[in-house]
Amino acid sequence: MSKNLSLEYQFNSPIEKVWTALTDSDTLAKWVMDNDFKPIVGHRFQFRQQPYGDWDGIIHCEVLEVDEPHRLSYTWVSGGENTTIIWTLQEDQDGTVHLHLNQTGFSKDQALGGAKYGWTSMCGKLENVLTEL
């Protein structure tokens, strides 16, 4: 049975800034990791960081959906796990942006726990990046 991760964040930044943080390769590198992302359905890209242990430091991805500025989805394949990331953005009338992350398809509890830890840390950095945009 596959396991899923669901996280919610709120930002006091315009939805366009949050969208840019999710889809601009240089901005993504500031809070996730180095990458060659392009917001084009079918684009294959990688997130890259220093290898450690048996892991080569590469996450293989493919863009599945781009619905600017409300929804972005891509695969996330690494460490024997093949998951799907879905980002959903919604802006309230007061300007608050709700960012929902759903990562589906985990086969191992350890991978799910690692993803939760990683995204929580990275999304903490995202708030700082948004203030710089």
| Helix count, DSSP H or I runs of 4 or more residues | 3
The main sheet comes to:
7 strands, antiparallel
Question: Kindly state the mean pLDDT as a whole number?
Answer: 96
What is the percentage of strand-forming residues? 35-45%
What form results from the Cα inertia axes?
A: globular
Q: Report the strand count.
A: 7
H/E topology pattern: EHHEEEEEEH
Strand order of the largest sheet: 1-7-6-5-4-3-2
Q: Stretches where pLDDT falls below 50 for ≥5 residues?
A: none
Helix and strand composition category: alpha+beta
Helix content: 25-40%
Distance between the termini: 40 Å
Compute the CA-based radius of gyration: 14 Å
Brief summary of the model shown:
The protein has 133 residues and is an alpha+beta fold.
Question: What this model shows, in words?
Answer:
The chain has 133 residues and is an alpha+beta fold. The chain has three helices and seven strands; from the N terminus they run βααββββββα. The protein has helices spanning 15-23, 25-31, 109-132, and strands at residues 3-11, 34-35, 44-48, 58-67, 71-78, 81-91, 97-106. A hairpin with an 8-residue loop joins strand 2 (34-35) and strand 3 (44-48). The relative contact order is 0.25.
